[in-house]
Amino acid sequence: MSPPTIAIAGFTGKMARLITASLLSTHPHALIHGIARSPEKVPAAIKTHKNVTTFAASATDPAALRTALRGASVCICCYLGDAALMLDGQKQLIDACIAERVPRYIASDWSLDFRPLALGEHPAKDPMKHVQAYLEEKEREGKIKGVHVLNGAFMEVVWARFTGFVDVERDAFFAWGTGDEKIEVAAMGDVAAWTAGVAVDGGASGFLNFLGDRKSVKELAKLYEDVYGVTPTIENKGTLEELEVAKKAAFEADPGNYNVWRGLFYQLVMLSGKTNLGPLDNKRYPMVEPKNVEAFLKEHTKESVGKSIFFF
Ligand SMILES: NC(=O)c1ccc[n+]([C@@H]2O[C@H](COP(=O)([O-])OP(=O)(O)OC[C@H]3O[C@@H](n4cnc5c(N)ncnc54)[C@H](OP(=O)(O)O)[C@@H]3O)[C@@H](O)[C@H]2O)c1
Question: I want to staple 65 with a disulfide (CB 3.0 to 4.6 A). Which of 91, 96, 179, 225 is the partner?
């Protein structure tokens, strides 16, 4: 049997790097086609690996994308950018996959479950919903199978100040609602390992749910105290209804400034439980032993945990 060939678009990004590392260590026969608009940014150790071939292709160059996708058994899209990239760019990549008869496409999601959200309810999730619909249409025509990996929030993101749950520089946690609502999380390295498993598992399609932990803001604060020996404050911000009002006001004040309102959007959909995952697929890939929040905190210092999203 020929080795699986895995095409990874957005090959210079963090998820792509983690997925590649996982594939190379756990599936030594797998071949990787790394697709990047700037392949010179790919670290030399990856670029020169015998199993890796890099291809220069912009998201809007079908011919170059097709060359890079030729012979692939699956394409993993690791794009992260504006709505045009996440929707039109992914559609062009899916079309190129279909033209090259790539049987499966793993969408650039790694998300909370965006399916219950209405369009506009969380603007960053709209392209994911459109890509899901596009893949379903193509799947009905028998052209390709769509795969969506869901994992709640990355653990690294929860500790970043921009998300709004905690400011580690001030040892301060912020609780909308009661503080007991659970947040669903998984560490990026574990999500990458699950995605590598999904990539070589030709039978995996549709939505797959993976989690490392579920913790409330109060529980996060307690773990922070236990691991770092510092008692943080927990500031009550108001009810979830008041969060809804704050979210709308922040968006309407500056709709183009994603950075000022994204944390409120994420907090509302997570704390309300609306985007919680269904039954988990962790057991399908038993080789991945996910870390919980406590283990994650112990891997970082108090000074570094808030910036852990930028480490890769
Ligand atoms: N659940 C969560 O908490 C969470 C948090 C963050 C991200 N995510 C998900 O993780 C995935 C990727 O995140 P990441 O952190 O790996 O992103 P990243 O490190 O920013 O990488 C993004 C990739 O997209 C490429 N890209 C950006 N604009 C492009 C364009 N116009 N044309 C072609 N390529 C372009 C970048 O290429 P260049 O190097 O050339 O710019 C890079 O390879 C996304 O699916 C995102 O939804 C989930």
Answer: 96
pTM over 0.90: yes
C-alpha closest to that of 67 among 107, 31, 97: 97
Ligand 1 pocket mutation, candidates 41, 78, 108, 195, criterion most atoms within 8 A of CB: 78
Is beta strand 172-176 parallel, antiparallel or unpaired with respect to 166-167? antiparallel
Pick the atom of ligand 1 nearest to 124's CA: 47
Smallest Cα–Cα separation from 4: which of 63, 72, 84?
72
Q: Is the pLDDT at 219 greater than 80, yes or no?
A: yes
Answer whether CATH 3.40.50.720 is correct for domain 5-153+184-212+276-291. yes
Cβ–Cβ under 8 Å, residues 166 and 159 = yes
Domain ranges across the chain: 5-153+184-212+276-291, 157-180+215-271
Span 273-297, mean pLDDT?
Answer: 98
- Taking alpha carbons only, the member of 128, 186, 182, 179 closest to residue 157 is 186
Residues above pLDDT 70, as percent of the chain? 99
pLDDT at 258 (0 to 100)? 87
Q: What are the C-alpha distances in Å from 204 to residues 47, 51, 108, 208, 210? A: 28, 23, 16, 8, 13
